[in-house]
Amino acid sequence: MAVASIKDVPLEARIAFRSKNPKNTVLWSGKLIGISTLSGVRGYGNLQPENEAVRQIDPSVPSDTSLLTYFLLEVHTQGQASKIYAFADQWIKAGTLQILDTVKRVSLIVEDPFNDPQRLVAYLASATYIAKLT
């Protein structure tokens, strides 16, 4: 499903997109793990060169990188550990942002007669569900 902005994508959805940067020919694909400001993505590489390359194609992208909407993408490469990359929503080539699949979430209210919430989590994990206590 195509979407216009990263803001329209639910967290933990698998997405794919291409960059406006003509030298960045990768079809990026991975899991959206966060949307942030510049301060939240500073540890994920030097973002200024990508922004400048995109600005050569699209001068409407702000040169002030603190004005961009960033997101973190977790990319899995077969046989290697996953890696997290930072991108800006404004760097995505129009019409290429796709939601590949989303994580379905349900909320359950469970009465625990054993007063053992870890047992509930372990039971769900044994059936390959991902659960957390709140």
Overall description:
The chain is an alpha+beta fold. The chain has one domain (6-103). 18% of the residues lie in helices and 22% in strands. The protein has 3 helices and 5 strands. The protein has helices spanning 38-41, 48-57, 117-126, and strands at residues 14-17, 28-36, 70-75, 83-88, 98-101. It has a 5-stranded antiparallel sheet. β3 (70-75) and β4 (83-88) form a beta hairpin. The longest helix is centred in the middle third of the chain and has 10 residues, at 48-57. The radius of gyration is 19 Å and the shape is elongated. The chain starts with 13 loop residues before the first strand and ends in an 8-residue tail after the last helix.
Task: Jot down its keywords.
3 helices, 5-stranded antiparallel sheet, 5 strands, 134 residues, alpha+beta
SSE inventory with pairings:
Blueprint lengths: L13 E4 L10 E9 L1 H4 L6 H10 L12 E6 L7 E6 L9 E4 L15 H10 L8
Antiparallel strand pairs: 1-2, 1-5, 2-3, 3-4
Q: What is the H-and-E element order?
A: EEHHEEEH
Radius of gyration: 19 Å
- Outline the biggest β-sheet: 5 strands, antiparallel
The order of strands across the largest sheet is 4-3-2-1-5
CA-based shape: elongated
Q: How many runs of DSSP E, i.e. beta strands? A: 5
Q: First CA to last CA: what distance?
A: 31 Å
What is the averaged pLDDT score?
91
Question: How many structural units, i.e. domains?
Answer: 1
Relative strand content: 15-25%
Q: In DSSP terms, counting alpha (H) and pi (I) runs of 4 or more, how many helices?
A: 3
Low-confidence stretches: none
> Percent range for helical residues?
10-25%
Briefly note the structural class of the backbone: alpha+beta
